[in-house]
Design brief:
Layout lengths: L12 H12 L15 E5 L2 E5 L3 H10 L19 E9 H6 L2 H11 L3 E9 L1 H9 L5 E4 L2 H9 L3 E16 L13 H11 L3 E3 L5 H12 L10 E3 L4 H11 L2 E5 H7 L6 E5 L5 E9 L9 H11 L2 H8 L2 E2 L2 E2 L2 E2 L9
Parallel strand pairs: 3-4, 3-5, 7-8, 7-9
Antiparallel strand pairs: 1-2, 5-11, 6-9, 6-10, 6-11, 6-14, 12-13
Length: about 325
């Protein structure tokens, strides 16, 4: 962290001492981690002056006054100002739909040394990336490794970190008329759906889930667009599940959103597993060299939190309907800890 040192005249010792003891005489003695302190408050009379500083130089200046041991004096007159920061995370809808943000964000905001308020813009991964490319977000939390790496290669993002994974699943009517339960892999399951010409509902919204679905069709050697049995909603995963349910159709979903909507639909998880259906999520800070106004330090602080043991334990412990929705990748040992 960079600091600037503001020249400071020594205030009257009696004023500082009196106000310090009057205001904070009951404060417990503690030591600041100076590497993370960004501001000090100096009490002089009835004025509160916010000072930018070079931490060590400032401490040396105060010690030169020989009036206080500023780290151990009861009623210390130093205090950290919690900077107010509004940070925007552009995220895939699947994390939002799963409810994980309702656990992660309050825990992060509580633990942050700043007064951080996070706004989540939950859209498809493609839209999230395009938003970040315009500088409209401070951080990405998405699930499309290929486009994530391209985003960084083009200079829009830095410091990508893999956070967690779960599975994509193929859903359909309980009776499974296409017989995909017995498929050997995801590509074969899609082949069976196409051969039977049974309805399939796609998000069709350039999301990470949509791109994964198109990759499976491509690997199966099938072009579904334009077929009478293939439908695109252009909407979020939850909306797509509801449409698929009305049509009693097959669809591809992340497991988190499905579990969140399970009580609202009659569709069943018919096929999952295999490397093709692994659903990996990463965070990326938007490059401040390209967009100087982004909250880069707050973004890096959030990245540090979700990849820390504390954040990874929250992810590993998040359960819905008796199922773990995500598995930590930054500290994978937590899964078996």
């Amino acid at each position: 962290m960079n600091f600037s040192f503001a020249a400071l005249e020594k205030p009257p010792v009696s004023t500082i001492r009196q106000n310090a003891f009057n205001l904070w005489s009951s404060m417990k003695i503690f030591h600041y981690n100076l590497a993370s302190v960004s501001w000090l408050i100096l009490i002089t009379g009835n004025k509160i002056v916010k000072l930018s500083f070079s931490a060590m130089k400032y401490i040396h200046r105060l010690n030169e006054w020989n009036e206080f041991d500023i780290l151990t004096l009861p009623g210390v007159f130093l205090n950290v100002v919690r900077e107010k920061i509004n940070m925007v995370i552009a995220s895939t809808t699947s994390i939002q739909n799963s409810g994980l943000f309702d656990i992660l964000i309050p825990s992060y905001e509580k633990s942050s040394c700043n007064d951080v308020k996070i706004e989540v813009i939950a859209v498809g991964t493609g839209k999230a990336i395009r938003l970040a490319k315009r500088g409209g977000a401070d951080l990405l939390f998405v699930h499309d490794p290929f486009r994530e790496e391209k985003f960084i290669a083009e200079g829009y993002g830095i410091n990508r970190r893999v956070v967690m994974h779960n599975d994509f699943i193929i859903l359909g009517p309980a009776e499974d008329p296409a017989g995909i339960r017995n498929a050997g892999n995801a590509e074969e399951a899609f082949e069976l759906i196409a051969e039977s010409a049974l309805p399939f509902v796609s998000r069709g919204d350039d999301s990470g889930t949509n791109i994964k679905e198109l990759d499976i069709w491509d690997d199966a050697g099938i072009t579904p667009k334009g077929k009478g049995w293939y439908f695109e909603t252009g909407g979020k995963m939850g909306d797509t599940l509801l449409v698929a349910n009305r049509k009693m159709a097959y669809s591809l979903s992340d497991i988190g959103t499905f579990l969140n909507y399970q009580s609202e639909v009659d569709l069943k998880s018919l096929f999952q597993g295999g490397s093709m259906l692994k659903n990996q999520y990463s965070v990326i800070a938007v490059n401040p060299g390209r967009f100087p106004g982004v909250k880069y330090r707050a973004a890096m602080d959030f990245i540090a939190f979700v990849t820390s043991r504390e954040g990874q334990e929250l992810i590993a412990g998040y359960v819905k309907h008796g199922n773990h929705l995500f598995y930590p990748d930054a500290v994978p040992s937590i899964i078996t800890a």
